[in-house]
Amino acid sequence: MHWDRVRIFEAVATHGSVREASEELGISGSAVSQQLRKLERELGQTLVEPSGRGIRLTAAGSLMARHARAVDRQFRQADEELSRLSGDIGGRLRIGGVMSALRTLLGPATARLVAEHPKVEPVIMDGEALEFVELLATRQLDVAIVEAWTSNTFPQLSSLTAQLILDEPIDLAVPADLPDRPRTITEAADLDLPWVVCPPGSGAYQTVTDVLRQAGREPEIRYRISAYPSQLDLVASGLAIALIPRLARESAEQRDVTFLPLESPLRRGLYLMTRVGDDRPVVTEFGAYLMRQRELISAADRG
Question: Residue ranges of the HTH lysR-type domain (predicted)?
Answer without folding.
Answer: 1-58
